[in-house]
Specification:
It is globular and about 80 Å long. The chain is 32% helix and 19% strand. The strands form 8 sheets. The protein has a 7-stranded mixed beta sheet with strand order 5-4-16-15-14-6-7, sandwiched between helices. The protein has a 6-stranded mixed β-barrel with strand order 21-25-22-24-23-26. A hairpin with an 8-residue loop joins β1 and β2 (20-25). It has 6 domains: 7-56, Phosphorylase Kinase, domain 1, CATH 3.30.200; 67-134 and 336-543, Rossmann fold (3-Layer(aba) Sandwich), CATH 3.40.50; 136-330, Dimethylsulfoxide Reductase, domain 2; 589-705, Barwin-like endoglucanases, CATH 2.40.40; 710-825, no CATH class; 838-890, Arc Repressor Mutant, subunit A. By secondary structure, it is α/β, with parallel strands linked by helices. The structure holds ligand MGD (2 copies), iron/sulfur cluster and molybdenum atom. One ligand MGD is lined by residues 103-105, 130, 133-134, 296, 300, 333-334, 399-403, 405-406, 426-429, 432, 444, 446, 477, 593-594, 601-602, 604, 667, 679-680, 683, 696.
Length: 891
């Protein structure tokens, strides 16, 4: 939908909030983005990542042409190679030897075609998705309780609630616009909804919380089982609802009582003070309008499905489900995690919320007129890569995900791909750890270049629309899949003119032999079955179900109506379940992993933006000062985090927000950006027995100082191919420059020769350097016409000059005498501000600027800071950090 002004309404490609974005392409090709005021997810708001989308669209580093065996080839050659490889594997080893591993970031149309090809035409269910790592415990929990995978909540429920419980969700950083909507509601409603956060760490989401429970990792189901017992004891059970619409309440209660029967029992098991547990239970019991929002702290656990059902049990028992302001709410991570569930992208689903029951299998086969059909579930992600390692899978096609960085036991994943006879990877980016393993590389179009739909956390389907031309030979994923299907002999079933036809078929399948009134299948968008291309182009956001004829169900489950055959929900009786791998003497700490505010997953997009890279430039481990002291770790030094599966080296960050005994490392860095920061190499491959979701938040590890011979960093206008002789290298995008943090275990003899070789490609004729042999400090800078081209700083320890100040010198056309002097002295001289690490990404305000203003001008609130420096006044994501700076400065 592009109007005369060149504006295109589309959807943000990042998180599951699914914000509407308006993209405008100017005559010179430059793009501007802003929030879509009409989109029901965000009403015009965007977070830091959404606002910086235009900074990630350049073609640097893109995979633009197909490659076979490292050679650039035409699409004809590449597609023939894929089809021949797959056909040969099928002929020699059968369908179970072939697998696809896809992504919750694919558009629904890409996803639908991939699933149809594998399950209906190749005839195996060996197609799984990275949503296995993300949502599968929620899916399994929903299915156990509701009989189907329905998310009953809506964003408006969050605003209408009187209490929101955030369980294992850092909403402020990971679903920022939803978090801002909650804060706006609190401001308008006199502090309601109240906010309770349950997370072992004190996160940014705790900033405004009325209560934070720093729960012992992995123990959430005990807490919620204890809550069920408490609700029962306090007469807070909705007996009418339980009687009319559920089964199994007493058994669940009995099971909960056995291991979570009293507040002291729960407090002990969850590592919480008894009063805190009692306060949370009381707040939940006395508040009718409660929404429990949960995410990866719940799902990514070897007891994730039980955690989900422990939460659902409490909502079912109190009848707090499906009514305004109430309900359990699993917020989805990826932009199309929900769409993937709708098309059946998981190995244990079929399509359109059907699974492998005989009726479903027959129905889907009939609808597709498929020659064969998978009749049983395929391998789930972790098992799939194990099967690759064991040679049972001989051809794998990875689409839109980077498993060598994001799957647990990631070194084993890489080894599996290296051993696999045929690895095909479709990606938009050339240099990723997974693309590096591919025999055949297929250039995928990405956000801004392709058309389709996505479904957000509240079941709202929105269009993503292209506003850029296809670069190089890149093609949308649906096209690539259909071309391969055609070459495999299935042309007639994959003969789509474009995404509109695919969407219409998907909609028709959702309505096929379905009956909205009969509770056959919840997912029904039959109203879109006849959509033609112009209507598809004009589609405005809508929530499902949307059956033909328009008679949808307003809300799910307020009046029961579950999809269990007898329409009754199921309570699940739960017992305690210990993590598969527990800490021991050799690996005494628990590694927790997750996200940072301004980065998205494996950095292929946000890593391109200097603004977004500034907030957390380097991979780090957040460690409680007590643990740091115990293991001899000092702030800012490098630390080795190791487990029985692998190791990583990252920067130590001491933080009282961390729970003692736990270490937190972000998941984002792969080897192109950080040579030793790939934390999934350390993460254990344990999975939940019901969902197969990996335990990404709980790996026994040990930490130790990693002491290289020297530490250093380089700032350079031109990218440098650093690597040789370095044992640690992190690459960060800066404004008009590249920053490299480096270290090595081998001492350097001749620093000057070393630095010349390092910066060899710099054309500068001016070379200035300084060497303090006694202190082991070396500094050098390459200049041209008084302009700084590159500089390198080396020291025996991690204490090195402020990078932000030095980066500022790169903005000068010529350095003053004073600036040159301070460059070599390695510290800012008078009148040379060091703004420090960026806190506010929107207005690029650094920590030193903030602290200085707080001190000098006595700024005591984020609003006061905003009035002076603008920090925190756009997306609001940094407000928790502003508040923390105010508190720290006052102390
Ligand atoms: N900035 C940013 N936002 C994102 C993404 C991103 O990459 N960057 N990715 C998106 C995706 S795909 C997803 S899935 C979501 C994830 O969104 P979230 O689930 O909110 O993010 P995480 O940081 O993975 O984990 C949430 C929290 O779980 C806590 N946790 C760990 N163990 C436990 C436990 O045993 N119990 C409890 N209660 N909590 C625990 C962690 O300390 C962490 O703070 O974010 C989405 N949004
Ligand atoms: N330790 C640990 N590991 C985790 C997690 C954690 O919390 N801790 N979280 C897990 C979760 S919830 C998730 S969702 C995963 C995310 O992990 P991944 O899915 O591996 O991460 P991304 O970087 O999003 O990978 C997407 C890839 O698709 C490419 N791409 C972009 N657009 C397109 C397109 O249109 N088509 C194609 N074909 N490719 C495209 C990108 O360049 C990129 O390489 O990580 C999981 N791994
Ligand atoms: S909240 Fe999520 S969908 Fe919205 S702008 Fe931010 S990353 Fe994009
Ligand atoms: Mo995710």
């Amino acid at each position: 939908m592009s109007d005369a002004s060149g504006e295109v309404r589309t959807t943000c490609p990042y998180c599951g909030v699914g914000c509407g974005v308006i993209a405008t392409r100017a005559a010179d090709g430059s793009v501007a983005v802003r929030g879509d005021p009409q989109h029901p997810a965000n009403f015009g708001r965007l977070c830091s990542k959404g606002s910086a989308l235009a900074e990630t669209l350049d073609l640097d580093g893109r995979l633009l042409f197909p490659e076979v065996g490292g050679q650039r080839v035409s699409w004809e050659v590449a597609l023939d190679a894929v089809a021949t490889g797959l056909r040969d594997t099928l002929t020699a080893h059968g369908p179970e030897a072939v697998a696809l591993y896809v992504s919750g970031q694919l558009l629904t149309e890409d996803y639908y075609v991939a699933n149809k090809l594998v399950k209906g035409f190749i005839g195996t269910a060996n197609i799984d998705t990275n949503s296995r790592l993300c949502m599968s415990s929620s899916v399994a929990g929903h299915k156990r309780a509701f009989g189907t995978d329905t998310v009953p909540g809506s964003y408006e429920d969050l605003e209408a609630a009187d209490l929101i419980v955030l369980v294992g969700s850092n909403l402020a950083w990971c679903h920022p616009v939803l978090y801002q909507r909650i804060l706006a509601a609190r401001a308008a409603r006199n502090g309601r909804p109240r906010l309770v956060v349950i997370d072992p760490r004190r996160t940014a989401s705790c900033d405004q919380a009325d209560q934070h429970l720093a729960i012992a990792p992995g123990t959430d189901s005990i807490l919620f089982d204890g809550l069920l017992v408490h609700l029962h004891r306090q007469d807070c059970i909705d007996l009418d609802y339980v009687e009319a619409h559920t089964e199994g309440y007493l058994a669940a209660l009995r099971a909960a009582r056995a291991h979570a029967g009293s507040v002291p029992d729960v407090a002990r098991a969850c590592g919480l003070p008894g009063e805190a547990v009692a306060e949370f239970f009381a707040a939940f019991a006395r508040t009718a309008k409660v929404v429990t929002v949960y995410s990866q702290g719940v799902n990514q656990s070897s007891c994730g499905t039980d955690k989900v059902n422990a939460i659902l049990n409490c909502h079912l028992a109190s009848g707090r489900i499906g009514k305004p302001g109430m309900g359990p709410f699993s917020v989805t991570g990826q932009p199309n995690a929900m769409g993937g569930r709708e098309v059946g992208g998981l190995a244990n689903q079929l399509a359109a919320h059907m699974d492998f029951a005989a009726d479903d299998v027959a129905r889907v086969q009939r609808f597709w007129a498929a020659p064969v059909i998978a009749e049983r579930p395929g391998l789930k992600a972790v098992d799939m890569f194990r099967a690759v390692a064991e040679g049972r899978i001989k051809a794998i096609w990875v689409i839109g995900t980077n498993p060598v960085v994001s799957l647990p036991d990631a070194d084993a994943v890489r080894a599996a791909l290296h051993a696999c006879p045929l690895v095909i990877v479709s990606d938009a980016v050339a240099d990723t750890d997974t693309v590096a393993c591919a025999h055949i590389r297929l250039p995928a179009a990405t956000w801004g270049e392709k058309d389709g739909t996505v479904t957000n956390s509240e079941r709202c389907i929105s269009r993503q629309r292209a506003f850029l031309p296809l670069p190089g030979a890149a093609q949308p994923d649906w096209w690539i899949l259909c071309e391969v299907a055609r070459r495999l002999g299935f042309g007639a079933a994959f003969d789509y003119a474009g995404p509109a036809g695919i969407f219409a078929e998907h909609a028709a399948l959702s309505a096929f032999e379905n009956d909205p009134a009969g509770r056959v299948r919840d997912f029904d968008i039959g109203a879109c079955a006849g959509l033609d291309a112009p209507a598809y182009d004009a589609l405005t956001p809508f929530r499902w179900p949307q059956p033909a004829g328009g008679a949808g169900i307003g809300r799910f489950f307020a009046e029961g109506g579950f999809y269990t055959g007898d329409n009754r929900a199921r309570f699940v009786a739960l017992g305690p379940r210990a993590p598969v791998y527990a800490p021991d003497a050799a690996y005494p700490l628990v590694l927790n992993t997750g996200r940072v505010r301004d980065h998205w997953h494996t950095l292929t997009r946000t890593g391109k933006s200097a603004r977004l890279s500034a907030h957390a430039p380097e991979p780090y481990a957040e460690i409680h000062p007590l643990d740091a002291a115990l293991f001899g770790i000092v702030d800012d030094a490098l630390v080795r985090v190791s487990s029985r599966w692998g190791e990583a080296v990252v920067r130590a960050k001491l933080a009282r927000e961390q729970r003692p005994g736990s270490v937190f490392v972000p998941m984002h860095w792969g080897s192109p950006q950080a040579s030793r920061g790939r934390i999934d190499a350390v993460v254990n491959p344990a999975t939940d027995p019901h969902s197969g979701q990996p335990e990404s938040k709980h790996t026994p590890v040990r930490i130790a100082p990693w002491v290289p011979a020297w530490h250093g960093f380089v700032l350079s206008r031109e990218p440098l191919a650093l690597g040789e002789g370095l044992d640690y290298r992190v690459q960060v995008r800066g404004d008009g420059l590249w920053r490299y943090e480096i270290a090595a275990e081998t001492p350097v003899g001749d620093w000057s020769a070393w630095a010349h070789a390092l910066l060899a490609d710099q054309p500068g004729e001016g070379w200035i350097e300084f060497f303090d042999a006694a202190a082991g400090r070396y500094r050098a800078a390459a200049m041209h016409d008084g302009r700084l081209l590159a500089c390198v700083f080396v020291a025996p320890g991690p204490q090195l000059p402020p990078r932000d100040w030095l980066a500022g010198l790169f903005t000068r056309d010529a350095l003053t005498v004073g600036e040159r002097a301070s460059l070599l002295a390695g510290r800012p001289g008078p009148g040379q501000p060091d703004t420090g690490r960026v806190v506010c990404a929107c207005f690029r305000v650094g920590v030193n600027t903030l602290v200085d203003a707080i001190r000098r001008q006595g700024l005591a609130t984020p609003e006061a800071i905003g009035a002076v420096l603008k920090a925190g006044t756009n997306c609001g994501s940094c407000v928790p950090e502003l508040r923390k700076l105010i508190a720290e400065t006052a102390a």
